[in-house]
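Troubleshooting log. The previous run stalled partway through. Resubmitting the same three chains, unchanged.
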Amino acid sequence: MCLGIPAQLVELVDAEAGLAKAEISGVRRAVSIALCPEAEVGDWVLVHVGFALSRIDEEQALETLALLERMGEAYEQEVRDIRESCITCGDEAVTARVVRVDGATATVDVDGEREQVGVELVEPVEPGDVLLCHAGIALEKVGAK
Amino acid sequence: MRFVDEFRSGELARKLRRELEGLVEPGRTLKLMEVCGGHTHTIYRHGLEDLVPAEIDYVHGPGCPVCVIPMGRVDDAIALAERPEVIFTTFGDMMRVPGGRGSLLEAKARGADVRMVYSPLDALELARRNPDRQVVFFAIGFETTAPATAVTLLRARAERIGNFSAFCNHVTIAPPLRAILDSPGLRLDGFIAPGHVSTVIGTGAYQFIARDYRKPVVVTAFEPIDILHATVMLVRQLREGRCVVENQYTRVVRPEGNPRAIAAIAETMELRDTFEWRGLGWIESSALRVRPAFAEWDAEVRFALPGGRIEDPKACQCGEVLIGAIKPWECRVFGTACTPERPIGTCMVSSEGACAAYYNYGRRNRVPA
Amino acid sequence: MRRRPRLRDELVTLAHGAGGKATRALVEGLFLEELGNPLLAPLSDSAVLSTNGGGRLAFTTDSYVVKPLVFPGGDIGELAVNGTVNDLAVVGAHPLALSAGFVIEEGFPVGELRRLAASMARAARTAGVPVAAGDTKVVERGKADGLYVTTAGVGFVASDVELGPERVRPGDRVLVSGTLGDHGLAVLIARGELDLEVDLESDTASVHELASALLELGGALRFMRDPTRGGLATTLNELAEAAGFSVALDETALPVRAEVAGACELLGIDPLYVANEGKLVAIVAPEAADAALAALRAHPLGRDAAIVGEVRDDPDALVLLETALGGTRIVDMLVGDPLPRIC
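Second attempt completed without errors. Output:
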């Protein structure tokens, strides 16, 4: 009952009687534009029980869609922020160069940033060693300085 | 289909879902009521309840103008249809609505000339082509559809078509909303307002909800993306402690509505003092009748109608479903005595009624009221 | 197990002819109850009869009450031939012959009747099936609405053909041979009552060759049906119930012409419930799905064939639609009748 369908006016049949033809996906039907006489051929209108109730504002439609495209971005940005805040927390393994060793923990350098990783699995390590790290743990030594 | 497909995009749905996940407070359920059969239909047809976080609960209010027609009025329609000189025209939705004596479809089986039309203008055309018959149009619907009937009446007068009349059962949206909001024990957090009614009446009509009842309102379009978008807008209002009427359907709805449509209604129809709504009882100033100036095209004036009143069946719990107090399956006759093929109450009668929509589309999901 | 529906109506209504729940209630609650026998009970498109010689025959009948008699893409004659040939084809039968019964209204133009008979002849030749027997009756003006046609068909079922809902398994794929909803909408629009202008034709055709191509798959082909009255939704609901499994459809995979989608949107109808007269639905084993699709697409009538869903192990035996948005909804049996007198 609430059926309102967007259709495009393709022909003015009888200006005085306010009758036009509207088309959706190749289907044409006579509609009355008595309630929406400013609509012209080429305009998109909302059709309900054989009447055009309103013109569809294409710009507004595009604006709405653009707004919606940006949704969820805040969430995605947050996820990105989390990942970037902990370089070894991501899904990937990261290569890091050992700067200093303190027992089972080493301070490593990744592209200029400093992080702490556990090195129990790859001991012994020395400054200059390059380690493959994931989730704060060094998994492998990949090469010496 | 332009302006339709873009608003059914799976990708946008996922974005909106993520947005909602970030906005809701875990464990705190928000009850959002929509009052339009079209919205109910969209929610179920596209499986939106699966997509939103569990904290969002869509409640289906009395937005189906087919469902709320009292049984006595259906009997009046059947009485009209059974007159041998009458061609009774109606929208398809009304054909299976049961009155006290069965439905229009059953009356047709007994020999009544009942015909389905897509528009009141089609009914007027039938009148032009059948000058020896009386064509009656079953005018139902909210303010979305009333202008169509209004223009048809104006045309009937202008062309002096004497064998056409309307059986007017148009209803208005604001009074039942108020009736729901006044219900004791009601728990609702926000409203998804009907987009197409608003195309006619504008957005100001819902001001009283925000102002007097302190509930946020978003005027919403009908595609699934639109409903998700409106959900985001409502949840944001609730989080930020705002309480206003917003317009999500900016591509069609203007704040002032359609003045020509409003004028057409005003010229041809007036408010009834009171009208009975199935499931909600009598509500003042909630329905329209044809004005005395157009009495010639008023089926209630032209024909004597039984005008009887029929009690809703005792087992019927539609009133509670309509205000969201219980869910469809919590009604004692849901799915057993009351099914889409044999509906007892209004909520099961039209495919856009809450119970019918749930039964037809969603009966595997059960989230308590 | 589902309860047999009880027929509580006192009068027959148009809903009883729609192919949905009301039709089923009428067929099962009245006809099956009165006529019930093991051959009729499966309510398949054709009954399969054993003969003394050991071979099997398929046997079927259909009545055609379509209005208008002539519509874009075909007429009642073509429909009557193709519909019955298809009912034989989908049970794996090679059609042997048809019979045709005509109930004609007094005053019907002879020229029109000849045109329709010629159309039937053409359809029969194309399908390779002769009309071997017939009957004619004339009724008074005002009855029979012009013309009603009933055709019956008989066909031969090869010994290695085993098709039926009981052969369907979870994991099996659902295929359709082409676009959905063309016939029902073409007829509705041809009626002229809804004042829609659109370039749509009925898809009426014999699917005999498509069925033969699929039969080459042997045991991997489980079941076939032609989705006529009530549409794909009704056919799959009946299958789901008979097989005891659910069927899940992928909304994005359903082939629907833009014009059909547009007209359905305008009228508030779902293409899943609209009749098809030149299509078949096939359930095939998953490993054979691609071969089945290729076989269908190799034929001109199967150009738009698609894999649209799969069978799921679920005793609820529902038809489910996975929407483009990622939600799920039920596709229930048709209630009421959106489009009367489509076939």
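Takeaways: Chain C has eight helices and 15 strands. The interface with chain B takes residues 8, 11-15, 21-22, 25, 193-195, 258, 261-262, 265, 267-268, 316, 318, 321-330, 332, 335-336, 338 of chain C (CB under 8 Å).
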